[in-house]
Amino acid sequence: MSISFDNALGIHEKALNFRAQRAEVLANNITNADTPNYKARDLDFSKVLAAQSDKTTNGHFALDMTNTRHIEAEGMSDGEASLLYRTPSQPSLDQNTVDSQVENANYAENAIGFQASFTLLNSKFKGLVAALRGE
Questions:
Q1: Is residue 6 in some structural domain?
Q2: Residues in domain Flagellar basal body rod protein N-terminal (predicted)?
Q3: Is residue 4 part of a domain?
C-alpha cells in the first residue's frame, strides 16, 4: 500500500507556494513605493485556486496546445497571468499606484496565512510520520 502525498497533504502545499509568491510580489511593491510610474501588482488567491482546480488533473496541469506537435509540459503554472494590477485608492502625481500602508497590511496578512499553511502542513507531516512508525 503506497502513500499518496497529494492526498495526504491536500491543498496546503499549493497554498504555501502561493503565499511565498505573493510575499515576493508584495515585497516588490513595497520596494518600489517611490519609483515613478510603478504599478502595484498582487495575486488573488481565489482566482488562482479556481484556475488550478480547473487545470489540475491527477496532479498535473492540463495545458492548451495549439498544435499537435507541441511538447506537453507538466507542472507549469500561469503565475504571470494571475498577477493583477492594483487599483489605487488615491492618485499619485508621479503615477505610482503603491500605497505603503495597504501593501504593509497585505504583507502582514499574507505572512499570517503563510504561517497557518506551514503549521497545517507541518501537522500533516507529523501525522504521516506517526502513521509510518505505527504510533
A1: no
A2: 11-39
A3: no
Evaluate whether residue 95 is within a structural domain. yes
Residue 65 contacts residue 131 (beta carbons within 8 Å): no
What is the domain count for the chain? 1
| Cα angle value 34/83/120 (rounded, 5°) | 105
Residue that has been written with the C-alpha cell 499553511 in this structure: 117
Inter-CA distances, 11 with 8, 39, 48, 130, Å: 9, 30, 12, 21
Classified as helix, coil or strand, 22 is helix
What is the residue-level pLDDT of the chain in tens, covering all 135 positions?
566 766 767 777 888 889 999 999 999 999 999 999 999 999 987 777 776 666 555 455 555 667 777 776 654 455 555 788 988 888 789 999 999 999 999 999 999 999 998 998 898 889 888 988 887
**Radius of gyration over every alpha carbon of the chain, rounded to an integer in angstroms:** 19
**Which amino acid belongs to residue 43?**
L
